[in-house]
Amino acid sequence: MGREEREAGSRKQGGSGAGGPASPCAACKLLRRRCAQGCIFAPYFPADEPQKFATVHKVFGASNVSKLLQELPMGHRSDAVSSLVYEAMARVRDPVYGCVAAISSLQRHIQLLQSQLAFAQAELVRLHLHHAAASHAVTDTAADADGKMMLSLDVLLDHALWSC
Amino acid sequence: MGREEREAGSRKQGGSGAGGPASPCAACKLLRRRCAQGCIFAPYFPADEPQKFATVHKVFGASNVSKLLQELPMGHRSDAVSSLVYEAMARVRDPVYGCVAAISSLQRHIQLLQSQLAFAQAELVRLHLHHAAASHAVTDTAADADGKMMLSLDVLLDHALWSC
Description:
- The structure is a homodimer.
- The first copy, chain A, is mainly alpha-helical.
- The first copy, chain A, has 2 domains: about 1-95, no CATH class; about 100-160.
- Chain A has helices at about 1-10, 25-30, 50-60, 60-70, 75-95, 100-145, 155-160.
- Mean pLDDT of chain A is about 80; it is low at about 1-20 and about 145-164.
- Chains A and B meet through α4, α5, α6 and α7 of A and α4, α5, α6 and α7 of B.
- Chains A, B: It is an enzyme of class 6 (ligase).
């Protein structure tokens, strides 16, 4: 192990991105194994962020994460790691519901917004009907007397209502 | 293993819930191990739903699920299993984003609803201002002539606007 560690320490890792000799990636460090050239974890779990891999390992297991990454094209691996880290952190924070808690919360938020939107739209329709009626009443009683009705409420409300 | 399997087969499992002798739970069946009395998986992974455990095992690993359940009080384990199954199924369906895809989709839906709601509320305010102005204009020109203005637009709009 001593020789392997020295080898790993003298090799640049895809994930470290720093100049000079890089340490083994966070995954290999935690798993106490040689961080070989082409290590599947190295580009996504740099040595300076050990908590990311520790959390993912605790929740999903290194073997499952490795298998999942290997089955994905290179271009999707970074996003997969981000989503795994997000899920794992949510599970550590809330062991019962994990990130399903966030989904439930967002769904409740959507229900609230939908009811507020339905109410606002119903109010707009109600105003349209009331003011259409008011407009006719005013036209019948006052328009002949003055002829200076400047605003057409029907036109105004039609524009306001059906544009949303 | 033969004797153990017979023992497991002749014992009722917490998760099976059926009358008569129950088979080992889905977890022990998949892991090819004895389903002992008090098996941590048995109440939540009945034999007649093998896919639930298979999916959770593939994504999280049996050992991680077992550890997680053991750390939770009994009353929370069923919810934890439900959320794990949900997450695991989402990850199998979408290996890159898992259930984070659902979170992103819900967040986009919330943004859309928030902008629709803001628009509807702005329309209500705009109508309020326009009709308040129209009401004053009509009052100035026509109310003296007839005196039969039946609707107070200000009152109507005040009621409509500030109740939402």
